[in-house]
Amino acid sequence: MDAAKQDHLLHVEALQKSFDGRHVLKGVELGVPRGSIFTVLGPSGAGKSVFLKCLANILQPDAGRISFDGHSLSPADPGGRAEFRRRCSFLFQSNALFDSLTALENVALPLEQTTKLTDREIRETSLEALRQLEMDDFRDHYPGQLSGGMQKRLALARAIVTHPELVLFDEPTAGLDPLRRNAVFAMIAKYKLLFNFTALIVTHDVVEALVASDRVALLNEGRICFEGTPAEFSASAHPVVCGFRDSAKALDNALEAIRQGTRAGSL
Amino acid sequence: MLYLLGRETLHTAFGFGDFALFTGRSFCSVVKSRRLRRRIVRAVYEQGTVCLPVILIVGVFTGLVLGLQGYHVLNRFGSEGLLGTLVSLSLVREMAPVLASLMLIGQAGSALAAELGIQRNTEQIAALETMGVNSHGYLVAPRLIAALLVFPIQTALFVVVGFWGGSLSGSLLLGVDSGVYWSSVRRAVESQDVRECFIKAAAFGLLSISICAYQGFHADRCRSGTGAQAVSASTTRAVVYSSIMVLIADYIISSFFI
To answer: Does ipTM exceed 0.90?
Structure first.
């Protein structure tokens, strides 16, 4: 194993996944360095969520190899999968909170079901996680009684309560306004420092991702077409990167063309 | 045509096999599941306490109707004294286990299928699996164990209120001697009838709750739609399939006891 691969907490080789003959992932290659915030960017429908669900074993990849901390995560190795689940958390786009459980019960759930802690220890650990995410005043609220941002924080509290080494974030800012998007990325960066986990985020929010991430990759048409630092991404001349990065500018140009057309009476 | 027939046959065979694996996996997960007792208590409440009023109402009216119809049939032969026998054997052997199960399917089973379907749709089940929680052990096993407790108890209550219903219509409204009615009830019901009643209740409970749980748990496999449509379709299938299976199982179990 080479040095770079050894430094990767998560390593993905030639990952493929298709649905009814439609190839969504066509050989994804990726290495997530230990302790980093790694963001996978890509347009909607590029296969980002499918990629993340293959990593979390929610979907079974058709081909390829995933290794976590040097251990293969193949279906033939249930022990490796169990170890991965123990050391990894997943933050769903929809938060996937249990609506029949209170905030405290939601956070306590993974501890109750996967550890041998006593009821008192579970309560204390869960309350501490809620406190760190400034949610302890809402411990008895049900998810339906909380705002979108609070639900996101609650989902993060549940994700970190088991002290995972890797947290997978599926579109953590989907459907949020720009201010809340900033707040979510700031929250990830803050708690990443606090709990020292490795974060793998998939999103299409370029600006926030470039500010908050240590490394970024661009997933396009089922393949990683760019991987590097945010500075390298900003300077890249790769046509897909340019197209994705300058999408706001392209919109501006298109709007300007429409305005000019209107002025000239062509519309 | 042949292709369609073959495809549907394979699909049905796959469904039965998958259902058997699902039920087996859910029972096996009891061993590994943590803090199961609390969830069993909650499931007993959902299936038992919540459904109790319906069971009592249907039980009383079944007894009333049996008393009324039975009286008029027996009256033709001058055998009104056998009303207690007719009401008690009808209730214990057939009506109580079947009707109580159908009521529980309508209330607790449909609610379970809808709840699991929504949990599947909103990725709550996927979330459990990513947390390393056994979703069968957490969501299904407590409901199956609760069904083994609740269905026989609810059926017994159905029988008791049904006897009172029969007494009400037969003795109070139609004039059959109350002592004759209750003594024929006591003489008619034997231990084998009670055993048959409880075996049926436990089997129907297990069958119907596992079918409802299976349909809700796999709402994402629905071929007729996604989202809310899939939840609605899986809930309907849960109620229809489990009702049919209860009636089939009733025939099979009855044939062993006769």
So the answer is: no
What span, in angstroms and rounded, lies between the C-alpha atoms of B172 and B166?
A: 9
- Give a yes or no: residue B239 inside a domain: yes
Q: Is residue A74 part of a domain?
A: yes
Put simply, whether A90 touches B (Cβ < 8 Å) is: yes
Give the nearest partner residue to B130 out of A85, A97, A100, using CB atoms: A85
Contacts of A113 in chain B (CB under 8 A): 33-35, 131-134, 138
* Angstrom distance (rounded) from CA B154 to CA B244: 20
Which CATH number belongs to the domain containing residue A222 in this structure? 3.40.50.300
Closest CA to B104 of B23, B204, B200: B204
Q: Specify the pTM.
A: 0.84
Give the range of the structural domain holding residue B204, as residue numbers without chain letter: 35-257
Range of the domain at A267: 237-267
Where chain B has pLDDT below 50, the residues are none
A63 DSSP β-pair partners: A16
Can you tell me whether residue A265 is helix, strand or coil? coil
Residues A88 and A44 in one domain: yes
Burial letters A19-44, b for 16+ CB under 10 A, else e: eeeeebbeebebbbeeebbbbbbbbe
